[in-house]
Write a structure and sequence with these properties.
This protein has 279 residues and is an alpha/beta fold. It has eight helices and seven strands, in the order E-H-E-H-E-H-E-H-E-H-E-H-H-H-E. Helices cover 36% and strands 13% of the residues.
């Protein structure tokens, strides 16, 4: 797959992408692996989050979709969840705000009674050629969205998460091989992997598993919204498989980690990188 040069304003929308990403709308087939589970996905409106929401619903889970303000994308994701016969709950707002993180979990508990699976997936990045041009405010916001929200969400969810629960953070191949033009993002994604590993050790005795997923170049709205057009055009070509991945190609890993089939997987960082190893 290749894509023409294109650019959007952050956070970007699915409808404006060319070609449109594949979230598994026509391909994902569930087999009851998450039947009855109450799940929360941040950044669930588009990209990896949408693919995970579709997969979770088709595996039998109810899904709370947290998102910033991309209402059209969020409603489309909710429709796919409901088409699978599951409950979809939409919660707009900014996960950079700790109070909103707590409100997301409170809404999930009100709607579902508990939280079985938490997916910390919402993320922000911007491309910069020099350190000096990164605004202080952007550094703080990137850390707040990508990393601090994970802390606030997990802390709020734990009192409502039974044994057998699963917490999953979206890390990145950049956590292992930082890209110089994405320094704030790189730092947060390394932090997600590290936090997940530490939390796995802390929560093991409570029967709660914690893992992270490290995607490589996945074709989502974040890419045309945060990278120059020429980088978008060449996005994904440098990995061994020679192309960007689709969100649908990442979602099955989240299903495994959320399901009881992953009952002995905790403290892991699973690479979905098109052939680019992580250490």
């Amino acid at each position: 797959m290749s894509q023409p040069p294109q650019q959007q304003t952050p956070p970007g929308t699915t409808a404006a992408m060319e070609p449109r990403p594949d979230h598994g709308e026509q391909s994902y087939r569930g087999s009851g692996r998450l039947t009855g589970k109450a799940t929360v996905i941040t950044g669930g409106d588009s990209g990896i989050g949408r693919a995970v929401a579709i997969a979770f619903a088709r595996e039998g889970a109810d899904v709370l979709i947290s998102y910033l303000d991309e209402h059209d994308d969020a409603r489309e994701t909710a429709k796919w969840v409901e088409d699978a016969g599951r409950k979809a709950v939409l919660v707009p707002g900014d996960v950079a705000d700790p109070a909103h993180c707590r409100a997301i979990i409170a809404t999930a508990v009100e709607e579902f009674g508990r939280v079985d699976v938490l997916v910390n997936n919402a993320a922000f990045q911007m491309t910069h050629e020099t350190l000096e041009e990164i605004p202080d405010e952007e550094w703080d916001r990137t850390l707040a969205i990508n990393l601090s929200a994970f802390f606030y969400l997990a802390k709020a969810a734990l009192p409502h998460m039974p044994a057998g629960g699963s917490i999953i953070g979206t890390s990145s191949v950049n956590s292992d091989m930082p890209k110089p033009t994405l320094v704030p993002y790189d730092v947060t994604k390394a932090g997600v992997a590290n936090f997940a590993g530490g939390l796995a050790g802390m929560l093991g005795e409570r029967g709660i598993r914690v893992n992270s997923v490290a995607p490589g170049p996945i074709w989502t709205p974040l890419i045309p919204a945060t990278m120059p057009p020429e980088e978008v055009e060449n996005f994904g070509r440098s990995v061994p498989l020679g192309r960007p991945g689709q969100p649908a190609e990442v979602a099955p890993v989240y299903v495994l980690l959320a399901s009881d089939e992953g009952s002995y997987i905790s403290g892991a960082r699973i690479a979905v990188t098109g052939g680019k190893p992580i250490l």
